[in-house]
Structures are given as C-alpha cells and as structure tokens.
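Below: protein 1.
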Amino acid sequence: MNILSSLLRNRIIPTIAMVVVMSIGIGAGLWQMSRAAGKIEKAEKLASQIALPPLDLNTKPQWTLAEADNRRLVVEGAFLVDQAIWLDNRPQPGAPATKAGSGQSGFYVLMPFRLAGMENTVIWVQRGWGPRNREDRLALPPINTPSGALRIEGVGIAQPDRVFELGDGGAGGNSPVRIQQNLDLTKEAERHRWQQIPFVLKQIGDAENDGLMRNWTAAASGVERHYAYAFQWFALALSAFLFWLIHGLLRIRQTTKR
C-alpha cells in the first residue's frame, strides 16, 4: 500500500496519462462487447421470428412492417421484369471477410412483384446478388426471371442495406437500365402510382436457378470481430497499467539505491 501511495503521489502526470488510456481502453472494450451482445440478441430474435409459420401476403391487401418484420413470407403473383432496379456497390453476400477493397462488388437485384388477385398491388422483392463487370459498369450480369404465376418465399425487411450516395444516387433517370445506390419505397410508389406494400421481401431459396446468389449474411455475423476488438482494447488498458506500475517501481528502486 505504501509503494502504491508513493507511485500515485510522486508521479501525478504519468498517473493521469495511465488513467486516461485505461478509461479509453476499458470503455471501448465494453462498447465492442455490447455490440456483440446486441448482434446475438438480434440473431436470437430473428431465429424465433423465422420459426413462426409464414405469412401469406395474398390473404389481405394491407400489411404493415410491424406485422412482417423478420417474418417468413410467401406470396403468389408475377415479377414486373421491366421495372427492375439494380442497387450498385453491394458486397457478395456470405463472402468471407477480406482486406478492404479486395472483395467482389456487385448488385442487389430489386424487382416489383404483382400479387395475384390484386391487380394494382405490388411488393418489392430483393431477389439476390449478381457480380459487377469490372470493366463496364452498365454491363449487367445475366439472370433468369421466371415468367407467369409464381409462388416465392422470403423474409420481410424494412429496406435493403443502404450505402452512401451523392445526390439522388442515380435514381429517377430515363435510362432503361436503372442502376442506383438505394431504394426509396416512397418515391417508387409515387413514380408508379400503384398500391405498394410498405416493406421489402428478401427472397430466400435457390430452387429457381436464376443466376443470383441469396446466401444472405446471418444477423450475428461479425460477433467474433467485436470480441477480437474488445480483447485488443482491454489489452491496451492492461498494458497501460502494467507500464505505469513497472516503470514506477523501477524509478523507486533507482531512487532507493541512491
């Protein structure tokens, strides 16, 4: 206790620096742990929601996001192929973590789906991911879209993952190919004057062999990374304390020998 008191009393500036570094390290480590816990909680909630029986969107004309969020959905109808939107700069789903900039970028294919028996009611479907042509941005990957009446299954989400965009992100142009950064459901409803379900169906399953990838990343993805970051921050805090302690003890030893 006398040695510790001496260290605190005689080394004010190093002590303050140690406390600051330890506070930053512990605080950042706890924040990373809380983010990991949040992802685990979200994944557990999602798993419980998906375990429920699927909702049939054809059973009524009006649905809310609260009813469908993270729920399995089934719907019958047909794709409106000529109204497709290609969301640019999307990473390949399910790809392993790589160094920044080394992963393959591509498109999320968004397509409106007209519900059977409801002539003017549509829901936007996030059909899957396709690779981007590195040499020609407008060269879209070949995909197959089944024609006629279909029954598809997916999970309800508020909207596709958003990315940073400048201006309108390319939306609203007259090009027959609509490549843009994000999907704005409100603007699409105003643009087409149709009755639009206020959420997106993220399609699952690969039975159609349509050339799109749908191995969507799980909600808990990245938990290990948060744990690794937390360990680094806690290690920084511990290192700061040990450096302060050992350096202080050496100084006291040198002073005693004199």
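Below: protein 2.
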Amino acid sequence: MKPGNSLLQSLVAKRIVATVSALLVIALGCGAGFWQLSRANTKIALAANLLARQQMPILNANLGSWTLEEASERRMIARGQYLPEAAIWLDNRPKPISGSSNATQSGFYLMMPLRLENRDEVLWINRGWAPRNNENRETLPPIKTPVGIISVEGIVFAHPGKVYELGDGKTIDSLGKPKIEQNFNLAAEGSMRGWNQAPFILREEDTGVDDGLLRSWAPLTNGVDRHYAYAFQWFALAVCGFLFWLITGFRQYWRQGHVNRV
C-alpha cells in the first residue's frame, strides 16, 4: 500500500467520528465568522447611506406632508409647540458610561409630540436621553420643556429603536398622564388621540440646549469592532478544530507506523 493512501486512511477512514466532528466545528466556526463579518459590513453600509442622505438638502416639516420614503434618514427642521402632557418615556435605553468599555447607565428616551405651526399635523420628537432614578424607578428625570413656538432640527427615522418587550405592548395609561413604555407605537398614538401625524419621528440633534437631556447619539457603526473580534474568535475556533484533528491524526499514524516497524 502506498504511504499516501495509508496516511489518508489513518486521518480519515479510520477516524470517521473525529473527522465528522472536526468538519462540524469548522463549518460552525466559519459560518459564524462570516455572519459576524456580514453584520459589520451591513452596519458600515447603513452608516455610509445615512451620511449620504444627510448631505441632501434639509427638509422643512412645515412646508408639506412628507412620506417616510421621502424623509427617512434625512435632516429636517420643524417649527411648532411641544405638547408635554402627551410625553412618553421609553424605558430600558442604556447609555455607555464615559471611560468604560462595557459599563452602561440605565435611562429613558423622551418622546414628545410637536404640533406644527400653521399645520394641522403633529410630529413626534425624540428629544434625547435622560438617566433613570435607580432608587425610585417611578420618578421621572427633571427636564425642561420650552414654552411657545420653537424650532427643532434633527434626523428623520421610522421609529426611535425597539427593545424586547413582554406582553402585547398595548397602551393602557390614561390620557394626559406621562407614560413609561418599552416601545413607541406611532400609529397607535395617532389613533388613540385622533391626531393627524407625520409618518415618522424626528431625532433631535444636539444644539447646545441645556434642558437636562443628552443627545450624543451612538453612530450606526457602533459595535463594528466587536463584530470583527467575534469573527476572529469564530475563525480561530475553526482553525483550532482543524489543527486538533490533523495533529491527533498524525500522532495516530506515527504510532501505528512505529508499532508496525517493531
């Protein structure tokens, strides 16, 4: 028998279980690694698309009824008056703590409707983030809401982001009472209040206003480095699985050859 065939038999034919196990580990590692790379590339593409749309002319919410397709991810200005009695506090919105790579601080996004000037239309504004009172979770953060007609500038999104939620997410709070919710349902709010609403929300940008809210929004590329790190770990697992299979196979082949020579 040729040495090459004998080596192949020792590595594969005589080690079916080990070979199948190694193939599974390699397939799992490579599949998960490429998936993590795909996630990173998707975030990079989304960030590039967002940046490109932000370079387009700024839209004015008061000049027409914009569709979500027309306005999505573009800059927009809106002029109107806040309706603070209809505010919604979105819970479980953590914010990374400055100087720490993993630690976060729990908090809220404040959603507040803006009645547009000279238009029978309401535009919901994501005004920013505020920390939660960890000692009394029902105590809302102290924030300032300007009175009268104001101008707001930001970026248009379909929603303020979603988190996992138990139950059906239906709003059960009474009108006029500030609500703490897990997620924001634009259509449900409009139906409940009978408002004519814009089909999107406006995420307010930081203009230096001191109102108790933070608007240092995380970029869409946030987490890309983590995806690359995970991909490296998965690929390393695949390589280790292959090397373990190969080295143990060679050891078995050498032991068998030594026994046969003896």
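The beta strands are 59-60, 75-82, 88-90, 95-96, 104-105, 107-116, 122-131, 150-157, 179-181, 197-204.
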